[in-house]
Give the backbone structure.
Amino acid sequence: MMNKKRTDARNTSFRWRLLPALPLLVMASLSLQAADVDTVLKAEKDKTSAAQASQKRVDALADQADELFQSFKQVNKQIENLQVYNAQLEAQLADQRSTLADLASSIDSAAQMERQLAPLTLKMIASLEQFVALDIPFLVEERQARLERLRSNQSRADLSSAEKFRQVLEAYKIESEYGTRIDSYPETLEIDGQRREVNILRVGRIALLYQTADQQVTAVWDKQAKNWLQLEGSDYRQAVAQGIRIARRQAAVDLLQLPIPAPEVAQ
C-alpha cells in the first residue's frame, strides 16, 4: 500500500515536471508553423512578383507586336499607293513617248514648212503693201512704217521664220480691224494751197472725211478721183462733227447722215 502511494507520488511529481515544458513545446510548434507560413507567404509573394513580371513582359511583347502590326499595315498601304503611283507614271511615260514620237514627226514637218514659210511670208507682205496702196488714205504714216518693219525684219537672223510669219499675221489682223471701227484723229493736210490742221473721221472703210477745227471746211475722200471733195451745206458739217465726237467717245452712239459712195461693181 505504501509502495502504491509512493508510485503515485512519483507519477504526480513527474506530471508536474512535464507541465512547465508544455508551453515551450507549444511555442516551438507555433514558431515552426509561423516559419512555414512565412515561407509559404514568401513563396506566394515571389510567385506573384514573377507572375507580374511575366505579365509585364507579355504586355510589352503584345504592345510591340501591335506596333509591328500597325507598321506593317502602314508599309503595306504605302506599297499599294506606290503601285498605283507607278501605274500612273507608266501611263504618263507611255503618253510622253507617244508625244515625243509626234514631236519628232512634227520637227521633220516643221523643217519642210520652214523652207516654204519664207517665200509665203514675202508674198503676204507684197499683197498687204498693194492693199494699203489701193485703200483709202488713213493713218498713212503708221501703216507704211508697219510695212517697212515687216520688210526689214525678214533679213534679221535673230528672228525665227515663225516669228516673222506671226508679225505678218498680226499686221493682217490690224488691217482687218480697221474695217470694223469708227475712228478720229488729228492730221495736217494741204487745203487750197495751205497746210491746215484737221480732224479725220473714218467710218470703217466705208467713208473717210475731215473737218477743220473751226468746222468751216468739211470734205470726203473720193475713191474714184482719189482726192478730197469738199462738201457744201450745214447738214454734213453737223453730221461729221457729231461723228468725230462719237469716235472720241464724247457723245453717245447715234445714227449719222454721211455721204457714202455707192459700192463699186466688181470686175
